[in-house]
Amino acid sequence: MGRSGPRRMIAIVLSLVITAVTVWLMYIAFVDSADTPQTTYQAMSDNAQLAQDVYTIIFILAGAVMAGVIALTLAFSFIYRERPGQQALQIHGNSKLELLWTLLPVLIVAAMAVPTFNAIAVITGDAPEDSLEVKAVGYQWWFQFQYPELGVVTASDLHLPVDRPILVKLESKDVIHSFWVPQLSGKVDMVPGHTNQLWFTPNTVGEFMGQCAEFCGLSHANMRFRVFVHTQEDFDAWVQSQLAEAATPEEGLAAAGAQQFTMSGCIGCHTVRGNALAMGVIGPELTHFGSRTRLAGGMVENTEVELRRWLKNPPAMKPGSIMPNLNLTDEQIDSLVAYLYSLQ
Ligand code: CUA
After folding, report:
1. Does the residue 53 lie in any domain?
2. CB 212 less than 6 A from any atom of ligand 1
3. How far is the CA of 232 from the CAs of 128, 241, 260, in angstroms?
4. Under-70 pLDDT residues of the chain
5. Is ligand 1 within 6 A of the CB of residue 298?
6. Is residue 72 part of a domain?
7. Residue 177 Cβ contacting ligand 1 at under 6 Å
8. Range of the domain at 23
9. Ligand 1 atom at minimal distance to the Cα of residue 213
């Protein structure tokens, strides 16, 4: 044994280095994920924080187990390996050790279970009485948001007040979708003919990414939305702006666009409150289209360049889009763009 002293040292040091590097890589992955927009590791609501606390506990316990297993496996397989004059170490019938490595995992799993069940009970429990109710409806491939108490309907941008519990009722018009805003809440399915729900209280003013998290057809990956959490004051102002009906432009390009909107059949699929002809319910309500940040189901920024690209050929931009290519001329698109941006 004496001869193998230095080699044993090398083996132990090497085991520790490999273990340290592995743990360090895990840590990097863990911390780095905090800088990505879809991270679950920067919780911005009470329930997301609750879930993240469970995640942290499990991460630390699992990390400790992993580090211990790697270090001991590497060290033992060198130190106790078979070589001339020494048999490989085998352990049989050691009751104390057997008991230890049976009970230890039980304790570790129990330590994970208590906070997990507690978090599940809170998150799936009833929302507080003073919650603001929002109905989120999934369509192929965009999200509609209704505020039954406020009389507001919008799409792709979900606006919420900070520090007030939000009860989201989830429905679908066609296939199964899933509502997910990683920084605010876990994902919950939106099932046709059945209402699911989730609740959370956003605690930070800001903009958060949301997306459909259930494969729902060709443009599943393009089914996105943004959540804007405002101060109560800003939220109230937004609600006021959304309650107004759209004014019909009297003259100029926008007025031509309003006519084009009727002639091209847009009115069959889209509602514009204030435009008596536009009462369609297949596509998003457009009464305040100009005030939205995104278009085409949250795919792209709501800019003139993107809107032109969209009107020119929707299915080319968003595969499977129910909005067809209407073969609009550039002049027709000019007028439609002017009309749509007049809908502030
Ligand atoms: Cu809707 Cu995926």
Report:
1. yes
2. yes
3. 18, 14, 38
4. 1-4, 31-35
5. no
6. yes
7. yes
8. 4-123
9. 2
CB contact at 8 A, 128 and 120? no
Helices (H), the chain: 5-32, 46-79, 95-123, 232-243, 252-263, 304-312, 314-317, 330-342
Strands 206-212 and 188-190: unpaired
- In the block, which residue shows the tokens 């007040």? 161
Please list, in sequence order, all residues whose beta carbon lies within 8 angstroms of the beta carbon of residue 297, skipping any fewer than 6 positions away: 141, 142, 143, 156, 219, 222, 223, 224, 225, 318
CATH number of the domain enclosing 317: 2.60.40.420
Tell me whether residue 247 is in a domain.
no
- Measured CA to CA, the distance from residue 243 to residue 263 in angstroms comes to 27
Query: Per the structure block, which two tokens stand in for 119?
Result: 């978090």
pLDDT value for 36: 79
pTM, rounded to two decimals: 0.85
CB atoms within 10 A of CB 138: 26
DSSP per residue over 201-250, as a string?
Answer: -B-S-EEEEEEE-S--STTGGG-EEEEEEE-HHHHHHHHHHHHSPPPPP-
Structural domain includes residue 246: no
Structure tokens at 315: 């299915």
| Per-residue pLDDT reduced to its tens digit, 332-342 | 999 999 999 99
Q: Are residues 23 and 102 in the same domain?
A: yes
- The residues, any chain, with a CB within 8 Å of residue 46's CB and separated by 6 or more, are 200, 201, 203
The number of the ligand 1 atom at minimal distance from the alpha carbon of 216 is 2
